[in-house]
Write a structure and sequence with these properties.
Blueprint lengths: L3 E4 L6 E9 L3 H8 E2 L10 E9 L2 E11 L10 E8 L1 H13 L3 E2 L4 H8 L5 H12 L3 H11 L2 H25 L11 H30 L1 E7 L5 H9 L17 E7 L2 E7 L9 H16 L2 E7 L6 H8 L6 E6 L17 E3 L8 H11 L2 H4 L10 H22 L4 H19 L5 H8 L7
Parallel strand pairs: 1-7, 8-10, 8-11, 11-12, 12-13
Antiparallel strand pairs: 1-2, 2-6, 3-4, 4-5, 5-6, 9-10
Helix pairs in contact: 4-5, 6-14, 7-13, 13-14
């Protein structure tokens, strides 16, 4: 592979910037611009003082770290230049490296090389990316468990269980004449597969919790104009994020904010009031609001205590079927006109944003819906990204196919195909099996220099 270089720290004014170089020729390239000890003669994992120079001009006073293959992040020779953290200085050092034979690294290319060279697997790579972007203590803990290999070990253990079943099937198919080999019938496989299915279903359930920890919960606030959606957003954020007036249709576009609840980020989205309108701009906002109903993890529908239910309200209530949702009846400080009987079996929370009543009850309901009270007590050793969860579900479907085949009295070699598919799919999670275009797409999400 060629030698790559990139700035590994955030570009801006700071005390220190780090420019990372990785590849077989990294030491020779840095030596060309470094005035100090000969880096080709120093010990691995040592730091050296000197200057970065452009011909005879001194660019910066630096510390240079030398790490020799294979005991490095990429398993290649790595040199890291610690320079003063100015934008012009950092860019100049990188420019000199590129002029002397290095290539600018693509986003995530250092981590991609670590994967391709066997230093980490895909779950650990995801852990690195998640750790960089972690915003809560729970997401940090989850990322560390991915990074240290605990999650990978769980996947490998699952694959080993399938290998054990597959090996017995192969022996029975290929060597039926051996009397000392236990005959493995479909009746003996079935309990093992059912146990595996149950285990995988629990992992998928836990992984959805992991996705919540890493990505947060998208909460959409919907309702007719002037029911208090923007006021609720402001109350949850404890700041005046959204404009609040008595004029209907004030909110024309999506307004967002974030809070942390029990260690989990809530991405709260205030939408335009849903109603029939001839205003072109407001109509676009209404359409966005309707789209948000299908995209959010939780929908909060707001109604007014002092107004009778309209057909628009009833239509919105009907859209909440089979969705995580909360109905809020706002303005309980005003005269009652809303008939609760029309809500039928839909549970609701009464509140007055104006008098700061009911907000804590709302937060507690969110905690209950997503079981946030138990997340912090769990051993966070499960997957958390959409790709991995999709692969877990795909593997589960193959196991379900195998169980169905057994129940239909199909031949053992037909059952074996489904088990092999499940085993290979689990391998895609950790990168034991993968497609090149998938790897390129995954690592392109990383920042430069990582």
């Amino acid at each position: 592979m060629d030698t790559i270089a990139a700035i590994s720290t955030a570009l801006g004014v700071g005390a220190i910037s780090i420019i990372r170089v990785s590849g077989e020729d990294s030491i020779n390239i840095v030596n060309k611009i470094f005035k100090g000890p000969d880096l080709a003669k120093v010990q691995s994992h040592t730091i050296h003082y000197g200057y970065i120079v452009d011909k005879k001009q001194v660019i910066d006073e630096v510390l240079v770290s030398v790490m020799l293959a294979p005991k490095t992040f990429t398993t290649e020779n790595i040199v890291e230049i610690n320079s003063h953290g100015g934008i012009a200085t950092t860019n100049k050092v990188l420019e000199l490296l590129l002029l002397n034979g290095a290539r600018l690294a693509e986003p995530g290319e250092f981590t991609k090389r670590a994967f391709l060279n066997g230093r980490i697997d895909l779950v650990e790579a995801d852990g690195i990316m998640n750790l960089i972007s972690a915003k809560t203590e729970s997401s940090r803990a989850l990322s560390i468990n991915q990074l240290t290999g605990k999650v990978t070990n769980n996947i490998k253990e699952l694959r080993n269980k399938l290998v054990e079943i597959l090996s017995h099937i192969e022996v029975n198919i290929d060597y039926p004449e051996y009397e000392d080999i236990e005959e493995l019938t479909t009746d003996k496989i079935l309990p093992k597969l059912c146990s595996f299915q149950s285990n995988l279903e629990q992992i998928i359930k836990d992984s959805h919790d992991g996705k919540i920890i890493n990505e947060g919960i998208n909460v959409g606030i919907i309702g007719r104009p002037n029911v208090g959606k923007s006021s609720l957003l402001n109350a949850l954020l404890e700041e005046e994020k959204a404009i609040v007036t008595d004029i209907e249709g004030t909110t024309r576009d999506i307004v967002e904010g974030k809070i942390t609840l029990n260690g989990v980020i809530l991405n709260i989205i205030d939408t335009a009031g849903i109603r029939e309108t001839d205003n072109v701009v407001e109509k676009i906002g209404v359409e966005k609001s309707k789209e948000m109903i299908n995209k959010c993890d939780l929908i909060i529908l707001m109604l007014n205590h002092n107004e009778e239910l309209t057909q628009e309200d009833l239509n919105l209530i009907s859209t909440l079927q089979n969705k995580n949702s909360i109905i809020l009846i706002n303005k309980i400080d005003l005269d009652k006109k809303l008939d609760r009987n029309q809500l039928k079996d839909n549970k609701y929370i009464e509140l007055s944003i104006k008098e700061n009543k009911g907000i804590d009850v709302l937060k507690q309901r969110i905690i209950e819906i997503f079981n946030l009270g138990n997340l912090e007590t769990k051993d966070l050793t499960y997957l958390s990204d959409a790709r991995s969860i999709a692969l877990l579900k795909k593997s589960l479907s193959y196991i379900e196919n195998a169980i169905f085949s057994i129940q239909q009295k199909e031949p053992i070699d037909i059952v074996e195909f489904s088990i092999k598919d499940a085993w290979e799919t689990l391998g895609e999670i950790i990168g034991e099996t993968y497609k090149e275009e998938l790897i390129d797409e995954l690592f392109s999400r990383f920042c430069l220099g990582k």
